[in-house]
């Protein structure tokens, strides 16, 4: 057909972003001197509340480990997402987002901690306030796990 334009998936995502007047949200992260594991958990929860997603999603935040490096300490957290239903209260699959909070040993103590996160099965590193959360990312992870489970006979 003359006059019709065909868009690929990534072109569509770019158009979608341009059409919407959307501001990527962020929170105030703690300074290095005030950081604790519990505060890290609370701040991740506060940050996740800035994301747009359907109300049927539930998540839990787990502290995984503290890593001591030469110039910083890294605190790792896992946020496990699922959509339990009345018919299936135990979900068939979950999707995880892994957060890392870096507390510098060399920067002044009044500097904020550095935060980044990755979605399970993905290598792209996100930073709060720099990329927009997409619920589709969680759905894709769960869908791929369910498809993989269906190919395995127990």
UniProtKB/TrEMBL annotation:
It holds the Pfam family AKAP28. GO terms for molecular function: protein kinase A regulatory subunit binding. InterPro entries: AKAP, AKAP_28. One of its GO terms (cellular component) is cAMP-dependent protein kinase complex. It comes from the Eukaryota. This is A-kinase anchor protein 14-like isoform X2. It comes from Branchiostoma belcheri.
